[in-house]
Write a structure and sequence with these properties.
Number of helices: 1
Oligomer: single chain
Number of strands: 2
Helix content: 10-25%
Distance between the termini: 22 Å
Radius of gyration: 14 Å
Low-confidence stretches: none
Shape: globular
Order of helices and strands: EEH
Mean pLDDT: 86
Number of domains: 1
Length: about 60
Amino acid sequence: MYIEFELAGQGFGCINGGDMWSFTPAVSLSVTCDTEEEINKLREKLSEGGKIMMELQEYPFSKKY
């Protein structure tokens, strides 16, 4: 299932894993950046006061994800 919506002027796209996974309160966000510098700055800001659950890594679909 996939749904798109807008909240406070920001667009979101949401998917679920179907019957393979049960519901959790977890939320994952993906942000598209134009430069590596932008990625690093956003990661730093988004991680303030939080806990990094997945380090930035290279994947076949993204150099940094």
